[in-house]
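Problem 12. The chain below contains 235 residues. Write out its predicted structure in token notation.
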Amino acid sequence: MANELASQQIRMTPDQINLLKNTVARGASHDELQLFVSVAQRRGLDPFTRQIHFVKRWNASSRTEEGTFQTGIDGFRLIAQRSQKYAGQLGPYWCGEDGVWKDVWLGTEPPAAAKSIVLRHDFKEPLSAVANFSTYVQLKRDGTPNAFWARMGALMLAKCAESLALRKAFPEELSGLYSDEEMMQADATPAPTTPPPTAPAPPTVLPPQAAPVRPRQSGWDEASSTPGLPWKDNR
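Solution.
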């Protein structure tokens, strides 16, 4: 297997790597570019034909954008074909909420799930994988599917199911690779959550305060109630 991979590797010149950084992998750091080129070369995928491409994705944990890579469905099929053990596929198939599988989807609503079946020459049984619409659909901020999934939901879901089945059938060749359609949900913007209304706080009732007591001053004339005058005996 190692010799087969070595013969399939794509060699890039320094000029091609520089072109890659300015086009397909724009915005990649030095380390991200080196990793991307290494993966593309080892897997024998051509980034200039979109078999594999660089993507910047927001990491909520680190609160930074991090570079990663995704593989087109054609890249998956190419890797499977190169294994010389790929015997084709059955499907795709779609079903609604009733669970009845169909080989064509004509409904106005998107299918509930899609299934793909992959065959290998050296396996006795086929390998199947099912992708649920609710798991992979990419939603907008208002919670509705984006343009691709609203218009081509059945096709997008079928690609997810095919990617799952191919990776299941060829784990060594496709380990760590994910298709564009599988990763779209990772770019979905969560709908803003509105906090529940809070009841207004009750008004603060202060206890009644007693009138201030004026201190008694020396020299107070209790008879005349005139402060500062000496007390007189008027008898």
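Discussion. Confidence is low (pLDDT under 50) at residues 1-7, 189-193. Students who got a different answer should revisit the alignment rule from Section 12.3.
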